[in-house]
Amino acid sequence: MEACLLTEEEKVKICRVVTEAGADFIKTSTGFEKGGATLEDVRLFRENVGAKVKVKAAGGIRSVESAKAFLEAGAERIGASAVIKEHLKK
Questions:
Q1: pLDDT of the residue at 83
Q2: CB within 8 Å of 40: residues ≥ 6 apart
Q3: Three-class SS string for 19-83?
Q4: With 0-12 CB in 10 A as exposed, 13-18 as middle and 19+ as buried, what is 77?
Q5: How far apart are CA 90 and CA 86, in angstroms?
Q6: How far apart are CA 88 and CA 10, in angstroms?
Q7: Are residues 87 and 51 in contact, defined by beta-carbon separation less than 8 angstroms?
Q8: What is the spatial distance between Cα 42 and Cα 70, in angstroms, rounded to a whole number?
Q9: CATH number of 3-89
């Protein structure tokens, strides 16, 4: 989903739909809209999806430190191609 385009209420409703549909993952964003993953969205998703649904944080994660923060917030998977690009520059 593109969480940056939705209200909190819409995000919670989508979490319920994703859970009821039996999805394995819910993803914060594609990274192509005005905003990417936020720690708040990851926490909100984790609180509102079923126990079997995993959270993927994606979009705008640009450092190892921020990736760790998203994992600590409840993400089980990170979409972080920008981290790899930054690491390869060093």
A1: 61
A2: none
A3: HHHCCCEEECCCCCCCCCCCHHHHHHHHHHCCCCCEEEEECCCCCHHHHHHHHHHCCCEEECHHH
A4: middle
A5: 7
A6: 38
A7: no
A8: 7
A9: 3.20.20.70
What are the backbone dihedrals phi and psi of residue 64, each rounded to the nearest 5 degrees, phi first?
Answer: -60, -40
What pLDDT tens digit does each residue of the chain (90 aa) get?
899 999 999 999 999 999 999 999 999 988 777 788 899 999 999 999 999 999 999 988 888 899 999 999 999 999 877 665 555 565
The domains of the chain are located at 3-89
Q: What predicted TM-score, i.e. pTM, was given to this entire model?
A: 0.86
Which pLDDT score is estimated for 10?
97
CA–CA distance, 76 with 48 (Å, rounded to integer): 15
What amino acid occupies position 21? A
